[in-house]
Design brief:
Distance between the termini: 5 Å
Oligomer: single chain
Structural class: alpha+beta
Radius of gyration: 17 Å
Amino acid sequence: MRGIRTACVILAAYTLFCGVLAARGRQEETLDSIQARMDDAARDFHSLSADVQRTKVTVVVNDRSTESGTIRVRGDKMLLQLKTPEPRTVLRNGDNLYLYTPGLQRVEEYNLGKHRGLVEEFLLLGFGTSGRDLRKAYRVTLVGEPVLDRKKTVELELTPKSSAVQKQISKVNLWLDRSTMLPVQQEFYETGSGDYSIVTYSHVVENAKIPESIFKAHWPKGTQKIKAQQ
């Protein structure tokens, strides 16, 4: 179960940004208008690619560590390729999740079947999820409309309703670009420790052409395969 919890946190950190897509026109935002635009966007969402950067902040020792790479998503498939500071790959294909560390020549394999409900609670944060489903799973608060990274944004605070999710994440702050309704930044706050992750996205391409082959679990010869404890 510990391995699944770790996998869910990794997924959560990289899956929030796809849930809200293109908007039309300039208007004062409300939760209802944001939900409606998410509902419209979900019907048109098929895939997405982007550059991603994640900074983990450990509060007690005031430590910050940053990693960056690319992410590609299609349906229930996801490929996250971290390039710096240490190469790593996170691959999800349906109920199968793989954590590959080339430096160790090792891949950890997880089956999400029994825990798919928990994973889907995290994935409600993105990848074409409707606003209606988001508000079923999270208490959503419209915080304001600040300027972030020179962009006018809408800031939302999400508090999970599920007790299983609450054990991992106490809340998420989300900033959406007002002109496109694409995410600019998220902050994920871990339950108990107060540690948090800051995730930013750039060069986002909606409905990118992504070949099926990249979601295949092919690893270099000699890679040690470990089936993680469930």
